[in-house]
Amino acid sequence: MAEKLTDYKYKTPITLRFSDIDAVGHVNNAIYLTYFEEARLRYFHEAIKWDWSESGIIVGRSEVTYHKPILLRDEVHCYVRTSRIGNSSFDMMHVLVRVSPHGEEICTTGKSVLISYDYKANKSVPIPQGERARMIEYDEPGLILNTN
Description:
Blueprint: E1 10-14, H1 31-48, E2 56-66, E3 76-85, E4 89-100, E5 103-118, E6 123-124, H2 129-139, E7 145-146
Parallel strand pairs: 3-7
Antiparallel strand pairs: 1-3, 2-5, 3-4, 4-5, 5-6
């Protein structure tokens, strides 16, 4: 995934914990999905104002591409955007960067397929219209593939 940071509006800091680090001194590969999840939840809360009482979200699939290791003392941020919207599912892209003296360096990219979900009925449901409209407006219609 060749991601351009200029395609992203939403960016949030990621706090690295000592327990995230493996024996070699890098962030453990399994932790990256947690970083993506933290950033996504902030995106839904701050940018999209997702109404969790109407429907929830479950993860259908995640992909991670590791470009450079992240170390304990790195300053890290995660960029997030919606890249595709279907009827009940949508794709989100994630980019983890570390701040260096030369700017931001892309360390990890990822894609998650998310599903709008009714936990009471235990089934997928159409993405609520308000949330759909806010994702399209926030992340710009030209950058979102609308497959609905």
